[in-house]
Amino acid sequence: MKVIDREQLEQKYPLLSKIDSPADLKELSLDELPQLCQEIRTYLLTVLSEVPGHLGASLGVVELTVALHYVLDLPSDGIVWDVGHQSYPHKLLTGRRDSFPSLRQWGGLSGFTHPNESQYDTFIAGHASNSISAALGLAVAKAKQKDDAQIVAVIGDGAMTGGMAFEGLNNVSSYPNNLLIVLNDNHISIDPITGGLSKYLLDITTSKTYNHLRYNAYRALRKAKVVNERRRSNILRFNNSVKALIADESNLFEGFNIRYIGPADGHDVRQLVSQLKTVLSFQGPKLLHIKTTKGKGYTPAETSAVTWHAPGKFDLDTGERATVVKEMPDKPLKFQEIFGRTLLEIAEQDESVVGVTPAMISGSSFNFLQDRYPDRVYDVGIAEAHAVTFSAGLSRGGKKVFCNIYSSFLQRGYDQVIHDVAMQATPMILCLDRAGLVGEDGVTHQGVYDIPYLRCVPGLTMMSPYDERELRYMMYTAYKHYEEGSFVIRYPRGAGSCADWDVPLEEIPLGKARLLKDGERVVFVSYGPVGYTVTEAIKELEQQGIYPGHLDLRFVKPLDTEALDELSEKYEHIITVEDGALAGGVGCALLEYYSDQGKQVSITRVGVPDLFVKQGAVEIQRAYVGLDKENLVKLALKLYHKQ
User: Fold this and answer.
1) Annotated catalytic residue: which of 243, 400, 412, 629?
2) Distances (CA, A) of 101 to 49, 88, 346, 451
3) Sign of CA pseudo-dihedral 240, 246, 252, 255
4) CA separation (Å) from 567 to 161, 547, 574?
5) Catalytic annotation on 469?
6) pLDDT at 247
């Protein structure tokens, strides 16, 4: 995208152009903040219409972000954002405005917050539900050091469904701290904002009169020894009981002994500034509940929150998305779509087949099954650990479960895979979407660790398809052998190499690789769709008179030892190629096998080395780690010429 020059920036964004740090923001008057919010929205829309990113969530928190930066003293104070989808306005106000057009690009800004990127990023925010725990740790540390710095956790109602958020809430009142949790409620109706009672409660709980009355009442009750100064829980219960008495009701957060204030209008920036100043003056942990609209300020994003969560490029004037194109008959569908269509096909044959997903209905293409059989799809919210154990319970109750979780998110359910699935031999089909290098989402979303962390778990059958047709075969094979154990199928984001995917379902032999190409001297052993890159490299090598072999491993657990024995006897060199971490990966599996057999085999491993791969196009990331055709050709030539 063409970066807006300084003159254009000042002309179009007279207030935003002056802000290079939160300190600059404080130079504005309170009455100028609404205009600044409008300029931020315009800037976000202008850039994100050409540079794809997460739009809806960021538009919804503009006023909150401005108010927080206006009131807090950053970076001495700290904001912990829960999921970086909502952090774009924060980036604009913390010195990253001019570089914002480099968002999610190689060498550019991350789409999430990360302390390595800015001193204003207090904590990494790529996976949901960690903000309360992280912010609580920071707040407790500050309290221990007699540091009066303010720590704020900003969490959305969706992230509040994660178990870790409740673990954090459960501990908030256990230690001395002044943590403020801001609950950004843009979907789930925790407490309606409309109506006189809600507005009255908000006004009274933030007023000086109410707090003075409450303090005097507390002093009187303490003197009468009704509450105990040594027990913070008594104090917090009393504080919450005053409002409960007035409102004749309580709520979830007060049950955790967290002072609750709200709901407040999350789009009234001046009122938010006033409320934040008041709430931050309260001692002890507290929660400010605000109501916002996802996609606020842009009608298409307001009316279709799911579509405009991350819409890709779009026409700013018309709202027409550039990524919405008519499906071509010969264009390969995405792996996700093949999964969804195949699952429906299997489910039509067997009413015991069900699907489970942690808040990824559309992303994982469960919508095909949901549209036909809505009572056979379970969206458990952002709760991966629960998704795994819930699936295990469904399975042991007689259902045949396809549990679909993004590879990087299954890390949050690893204990459950071991304890609740594998250890008791619970049948299940775990489908790992977004496996391998994922592109612009960067370090927090790279699905490169699942092979190592699952390969060591007893009882799992692990496979990965070369193309979309193979995905169908593997899903059907796992279904046909469902009672024999737990299956893991990993596949990447986006389209693969096979346009002719719609073939009849058929089983493949369990634990058997397939030889795609017989060759001489050097053989590639690939696992999953990265094998297509190997196929393209071999075509180029053959034009140079070199003919390597190619084995599509299909299964990394169990290994096809018969095929591996044949490779060691016929070929001088083996090149393993995997779209995953090298440490503990496919290449290591072969090395272990040959070592255990006492065989000396020359193996060169190609995959993701011991580093975090940053955001950028998948093609750039693969070239960076050597998973591109050019590197494979060069590597094979080098091995041939060694002889």
Assistant:
1) 412
2) 10, 11, 44, 35
3) positive
4) 49, 15, 8
5) no
6) 47
**Nearest Cα to 153, choosing from 77, 256, 56?**
77
Query: If you search the block for the tokens 């800015």, which residue do you land on?
Result: 118
Q: How far apart are CA 275 and CA 129, in angstroms?
A: 24
Q: Please say if 412 is a catalytic residue.
A: yes
Residue 460 tokens read as 């799992």
Say which of 39, 254, 384, 470 is annotated catalytic: 384
Q: Is 334 annotated as catalytic? A: no
Tokens 């026409």 label which residue?
A: 315
The token pair at 468 is: 């979309």
> To which residue do tokens 């000396």 refer?
600
Calpha distance 504→319 (Å, rounded):
40
Q: Which residues contact 604 (CB under 8 A, 6 or more apart)?
A: 573, 574, 575, 576, 635, 639
User: Global pTM?
Assistant: 0.81
Handedness of CA 305, 309, 310, 315 (dihedral sign): positive
Residues 555-580, mean pLDDT to the nearest whole number: 97
Instruction: Single out the catalytic residue among 294, 469, 472, 490.
Output: 294
- Token code pair at residue 328: 């071509």
Q: Is the pLDDT of residue 517 over 60?
A: yes
Q: Is 485 exposed, middle or buried (0-12, 13-18, 19+ CB in 10 A)?
A: middle
Least confident among 166-175, 181-190, 235-244, 541-550: 235-244
Contact present, 494 and 471 (Cβ < 8 Å): no
- 286-291/353-357 β-pairing: unpaired
The answer to whether 558 and 485 are in contact (CB under 8 A) is: no
